[in-house]
Amino acid sequence: MADNLNTDNNEIPDEPYERAAQAFPQLDDDMAARVASYGEEELVPQGTLVFERGQRGIDFFLILDGEIEIFDTDDSGKCRIVTTHRAAQFTGELHLLNGRQTLLSARAGIDTRLVRIKPAGFRRLIGGEQDIAEIILRALILRRVGSLQRRRGAISVIGSGHGGDTLRVQQFLTRNAYPFHLLDVDVDAHARELLDNHSLAPAQFPVVLSPNSPALFNPSNATLADALGLAEAIDPEHVYDVAVVGAGPAGLAAAVYAASEGLDTIVIEGLAPGGQAGTSSKIENYLGFPTGISGAALAGRAQVQAMKFGANLAISRAVVGLDCGVYPYVLRLDDGQRVKARSIVVASGVRYRKLEVQSYSQFECQGIHYAATPIEQQLCKDEEVVVVGGGNSAGQAAVFLSRTVKHVHILVRGEGLAATMSDYLVRRIAQSPRITLHARTEVSSLEGNGYLQEVGFTHRDTGATQKRPCSNLFVMIGAGANTDWLDGCLELDRSGFVKTGYDANGQLLPSPYATTLPGVYAVGDVRSGSVKRVASSVGEGSVVVQAIHQFLNPPAT
Asked: Signal sequence span per UniProt (predicted)?
């Protein structure tokens, strides 16, 4: 997941902390003076704690003279210095943009003179000083990448590496760019000793240990987000100009353009930024990235961009209902909170489809996956894997996995891949000695003891069946619309996708993304008739903002 925060290269630097000129830049005299104008000067005695891990709303500090030490604390309570900021350098990380809990602490190494800039002043600085903002944002991103790679401020996740809930927690933390150590009880004697000492049962795995909260036993994503400060409290009386439901490419694009044009914007996402595209190992046909970019990297950049312009992101909070009989509209969240908004962008995307095979539910999260990320890649290293599906997601997964697995078997119900997959992927699959395409074939059996161990597949015409030793099955057979939460407020097509562009009488609406409810728009995969591609979703998310402006500020008649 570290690569979801990369800045100016398509590949992640091996060691961001070694890029001192960018990760820990020293401002010139002119820049330092301009930064100082946004805050107040202070003298901080040696040893003073400037901020502490777990705090929210941390101030931004520019050092004039002296030293500020950034430090972490290990499990034994021992302090470790991460870096030391000196004159003309500044503190901070991505928490400055999103108001989440800081991962590290800071103290004055010697008597230090600095400028303290409050969060409101920091936002003015980022918005008003473009050249300085570029330097600061690049540094904040690289510092988070360094924290992820070096596991600074990390929590510990203890559980079975093959356990479904352990994988779920890892994926949640990875996609939300939160550093962690995995202590696998299947291979780590120290991890087993920790669990034995606490007399824990397997049902309590994984155990999450964090210095900011009590031990968590098999926490839900929402519980974990609350404990780590990833979730944000929402003012139930505040009325946003725009509420975007879903943080996939379409939702993030809408947030970037809405916030950059001065609209008070909130994005509500049930899991993590990126949507299904965020799990893609590499997108090679997205404009402007000739060597490709991972879905996580694209989503990470878009998230930072949205926050830079002031968009609020409510992560790990799913929308479960819409009150469309009142205005402003009210979105109901799964934790009981409510969000009021004058306009809504429905960008909730789709849900993964499942195979109809006996024992399928038994092996979900125990060998069956819906995405191929580095976490899954590590699980199936040097093993055979099966990928089901003929679209680009399946092709990207097969190519990505083929780098490290023993062999990839692609199963498709049709005659081949040409009609459903981009040509560059079809050619790459055909040329790979580690990938075999099985046309007119489908999964017929799943076997295993506790977790998946064998996959059987059958040719639809001949009935010939083969079984392969396989602990990881990747199911990428499309998805259905994620629209249950709309409560009948919008007109849907037969498959549950949101109809746009025409009212209930068939009359043309002002925008091709307008729904049958005024001020509510649908973009991306959730929209009926949309092209299921990242580029088109980004385009729809950006263009819809013009219609929102016209709705919120109608021309005088």
From this structure: none
Place of tokens 């949101």: 498
For residues 524 and 518, give the distance between their C-alpha atoms in angstroms, rounded to a whole number.
19
**Which of 456, 281, 271, 453 is CA-nearest to residue 376?**
281
Q: Is residue 25 part of a domain?
A: yes
Domain limits at 169? Answer: 155-228
What is the CATH number for 177? 3.40.30.10
Contact between 542 and 258 (Cβ < 8 Å): no
Residue 494 domain-assigned (yes or no)? yes
Residues 366 and 315 in one domain: no
pLDDT at 513: 98
Backbone angles phi, psi at 364, to 5 degrees: -65, 130
Distance CA 118, CA 98 (A): 14
User: Could you tell me where the DSSP H helices lie in 41-163?
Assistant: 95-98, 119-128, 130-150
pLDDT at site 557: 63
pLDDT for 454 beyond 60: yes
On whether residue 234 sits in a domain, the answer given is: no
Q: Tell me the average pLDDT across 305-331.
A: 95
Residue 452 lies inside a defined structural domain of this protein: yes
- Which of 443, 477, 511 is the endpoint of a domain? 477
Question: What are the backbone dihedrals phi and psi of residue 255, each rounded to the nearest 5 degrees, phi first?
Answer: -65, -45
Mean per-residue pLDDT for 386-404? 95
Do 517 and 466 lie in a common domain? no
| Eight-state DSSP code of residue 258 | H
Q: What is the pLDDT of residue 188?
A: 85
Local structure of 449: helix, strand or coil:
strand
Q: Which of 112, 71, 57, 118 is nearest to 88 (CA)?
A: 112
> How many other C-beta atoms can be found within 10 angstroms of the C-beta atom of residue 78?
8
β-pair type (473-475, 384-388): parallel
Q: What is the CATH number of the domain that holds 412?
A: 3.50.50.60
Contacts of 466 (CB under 8 A, 6+ apart): 456, 457
Instruction: Give dist(CA 409, CA 398) in Å, integer.
Output: 8
pLDDT for residue 443? 97
Q: Which of 430, 360, 350, 439 is nearest to 398 (CA)?
A: 430
Radius of gyration of the chain (CA): 25
Cα gap 167→372, rounded to integer Å: 12
**What is the average pLDDT across 58-68?**
98
* Residue in 188, 231, 180, 166 with CA at minimum distance from that of residue 209: 180
Structure tokens at 251: 């939702």
Report the sign of the C-alpha dihedral through residues 174, 179, 185, 189, in that order.
Answer: positive
Mean per-residue pLDDT over the chain, rounded: 91
Instruction: Pick the closest to residue 368 from 453, 284, 439, 266 (CA basis).
Output: 453
Residues in contact with 553: Cβ distance below 8 Å, sequence separation at least 6, in sequence order: none
Tokens representing 52 are: 């502490």
Per DSSP (E only), the strands in 141-280 are: 155-159, 180-184, 207-210, 213-217, 239-245, 265-269
What is the rounded distance in angstroms from the CA atom of residue 275 to the CA atom of residue 259? 20
> Percent of the chain, pLDDT > 70?
96
Using pLDDT thresholds of 50, 70 and 90, give the confidence band for residue 533.
confident
Q: What would the mean pLDDT of 106-130 be, rounded to a whole number?
A: 96
